[in-house]
Amino acid sequence: MSAPPRKSSVGMETRHKSETAKTGRIHPAASPEHVPDPGSDANERLLCRMEVMMQSMRSDIVTEFEQIVSGVVKREIAAALRPLETSLSAQSETINSLEDTATDHGGQLTSLQATVALLTEQVGSLSKKCEDLEGRSRQNNVRIVGVPEGVEGARPTDFVATLLRDLLGLNDKPVLDRAHRTLRPKPKDGEPPRPFIARVNLFQQRNEILRRAGASAPLLYQGKRVSVFPDFTAALSKKRSAFATVKKSLHSCPGVKFGLFYPAVLRVTLPGGQTHRFEDPELAADFVTKHVKTMVSPDSI
Q1: Which terminus in the chain has less CB density within 10 A, N or C?
Q2: SS3 of 213, please?
Q3: pLDDT, tens digit, 9 for 90 and up, residues 28-72
Q4: Burial of residue 209 (number of CB atoms within 10 Å: 0-12, 13-18, 19+)
């Protein structure tokens, strides 16, 4: 093949001159390096299209990968959370059951508290009644303290009747329903003897025995001191002994009469005839200090 004909340099110069003459300006001659290449433009466009296609493919691949990974992760997370959901559901049911049970128990406790309060009140009332009944059942009893062990022999009732007659100077032996020592174990050598409990048939005779015992004190039997007391319950004895300090104070108040009545009531009669009753030893002591002592003090006499 023959090479394409080349343009002569003369022709190019002539055309250049003519263009210069038309514009009045001299343009520099175009360098061969700045001549545009049609082939390079096509390559650039191809590269651009390929880049766009690759970017689109990349986006599609990333999107599809994300969808795949998202689906797998979701399935794995769902599989991992399923036991937790089951456990939470069971725990929720348990909590609801516990709440219902707690509510029921709260209602039952409220009802039980009301019942306990009522029963406590009833038990307190019944206890007071039982204590009163026991105390009244002992009203005919006397307690004899200080009699040596074994002197009563096989007939303790007859022995105690004779003992009371001799000690108190009674005309006849008192009629006793029964007499026996307290039911605690027999004391050892050196320990105090057990008291006698004697039930007197007549209440008036019992009072006479106690009156003479107080007037004839001290009483002696075989050189041993013997005392005769009413037979009270332990609780009642404690209540009555709480007035001991008040009674001691009243003994030093001339013109004031007092007495401790059943079950444990202190009655104070002032010189003017006013009568006061006290069931609380503290109130009685306060009254004696503030009113009785000042009334019968040396300054007021």
Answers
A1: N
A2: helix
A3: 444 444 455 556 788 888 888 888 888 888 888 888 877 887 777
A4: buried
